[in-house]
Write a structure and sequence with these properties.
Layout: H1 28-38, H2 47-60, E1 64-68, H3 71-81, E2 89-92, H4 99-106, E3 110-113, E4 136-140, H5 151-160, E5 164-168, E6 176-177, E7 180-181, E8 188-192, E9 205-209, H6 212-222, E10 226-227, E11 243-244, H7 255-265, H8 268-286, E12 292-293, E13 301-302, E14 308-312, H9 321-330, H10 346-350, H11 359-367, E15 368-371, H12 379-396
Parallel strand pairs: 2-3, 2-4, 4-5, 5-8
Antiparallel strand pairs: 1-9, 6-7, 6-13, 8-9, 10-11, 12-14, 14-15
The chain binds pyridoxal-5'-phosphate.
Pyridoxal-5'-phosphate (PLP) is lined by residues 70-72, 96-97, 99-100, 142, 168, 170-171, 192, 194, 205.
């Protein structure tokens, strides 16, 4: 048996240590930032929350930012603030994590899936109009892998039809659309701080917005629907008094978590530069492989490169994606797949969504493979992945 076939048959893999597809990068400054809060008076609802929100507003160019316990809670709050309720339809993409559509269901609304563009894998803005009905209330575009969706066209359609735009920018912190940072284009924008995302707070999320009315609703929704603002309370019995005016949740984040966020945010630009360098190396090393299709980059956007997703040309291989995936795992390369189209999840099937709604997303799902990408990797790690991929592809090539 040749050396090249060894791991595929259970022998020596190209890497000794397992390389995950994504992982946080923390340093001593991050740890000290958290320790400082632990020694302070406020573990939650303290001054670090406002500091983090201000930092995020400054970064994105938005007027306001409201932090939440996680990105999904932030999306839920945005759907509430947008007024989404029973019988409302919300247009989104199926090529995303389930949370982008679940947030609509939380409010009793109905997600409507529009197929993806074959080149960018983002929602195909040309197909949005045909899905608009008198019940349509909002559009939730997702900046898949960090490459911004077609925001000019999406905003134009939204304005013409009085729709609210909530951007799911969980992949796109620091990304640019036509020289504008993601976070101040749509009516509200959500970022997530889960450990695989660009920066982390353990769990955490935020909504950025330029609109004061959304901002006020988000703040109140985060704390049970409670307010202490004298000018909007129905009554005022004294200094202890507060009112719960609608059904909100406890979606607060702690100062402990955002202390990590404040410190991590200082390193965002370095993290993104590192991601870009790693991607350039992948692109260079993989450009001549006929069996894969590399991600396409639009000239007028700057991806923040959350994920490196390539497509396998299955017609040129003797096996399916599953076998390629398993062979790479045996090489200790933590490949992944993003995503099963949301409406193919069993729960969505029980809601009546059927196979075939978005054929491009469904076909892409069969071919997608996510390679490891995070700022803690070095060029040697990328070369390990490249060697592993070439070895496996060579073995299974037609
Ligand atoms: C991570 C993610 C979310 C949810 O964020 P959480 O902080 O994990 O709740 C939503 N949408 C997309 C596209 C994501 O990747």
């Amino acid at each position: 048996m040749s050396d090249e076939q060894l791991a595929i048959h259970g022998g020596k893999p190209v890497r000794n240590a397992y390389l995950p597809y994504g992982k946080q990068v923390l340093d001593e400054d991050d740890i000290q930032s958290v320790v400082q809060v632990l020694k302070s008076d406020y573990l939650t609802t303290g001054p670090v929350i406002q500091q983090f929100e201000q930092d995020m507003a400054n970064l994105t160019g938005a007027k306001y930012a409201v932090a939440f316990s996680n990105g999904t809670a932030a999306l839920h709050a945005a759907c509430f603030a947008a007024g989404i309720s029973e019988d409302d339809e919300v247009i989104t993409t199926p090529m995303t994590f389930a949370a982008s559509a679940n947030c609509v269901l939380y409010q009793g609304g109905k997600p409507v899936f529009v197929d993806i563009h074959p080149d960018t894998y983002n929602i195909n803005s040309m197909s949005i109009k045909e899905k608009i009905t008198k019940h349509t209330k909002a559009i939730i575009p997702v900046h898949f892998t960090g490459q911004p969706a077609d925001m000019d066209e999406i905003m134009k359609i939204a304005r013409e039809n009085q729709l609210i735009v909530i951007e799911d920018a969980a992949h796109a912190l620091g990304a640019m659309y036509k020289n504008q940072k993601i976070g101040s284009i749509g009516d509200m924008t959500m970022f997530s701080f889960h450990p695989v995302k660009h920066i982390t707070t353990g769990e955490g999320g935020i909504i950025t917005t330029n609109q004061e009315d959304f901002y006020k609703k988000l703040i109140q929704f985060r704390t049970h629907g409670i307010t202490r603002e004298p000018n909007i309370m129905r009554e005022n019995h004294g200094p202890w008094y507060y009112e719960m005016q609608f059904l909100g949740y406890n979606y607060r984040i702690t100062d402990i978590q955002v202390a990590l966020g404040v410190s991590q945010l200082k390193k965002l630009e370095t993290f993104i530069q590192k991601r870009k360098q790693l991607v350039e190396l992948y692109m260079e090393e993989l450009k001549n492989m006929d069996e894969i299709e590399l991600p396409k980059q639009l000239p007028y956007v700057e991806s923040s490169w959350h994920l490196f997703v390539l497509k396998l040309q299955l017609s040129k291989l003797t096996v399916g994606r599953k076998e390629i995936f398993e062979a790479l795992q045996k090489e200790n390369i933590g490949v992944n797949v993003h995503y099963l189209p949301v409406y193919l999840h069993p729960y969505y099937q029980t809601l009546g969504f059927t196979k075939g709604i978005c054929p491009i997303a469904e076909k892409s799902y069969e071919e997608f493979l996510t390679l490891p990408l995070f700022p803690g990797m070095d060029e040697g790690d990328v070369m390990d992945v490249v060697r592993g991929l070439k070895k496996v592809i060579k073995y299974y090539r037609k």
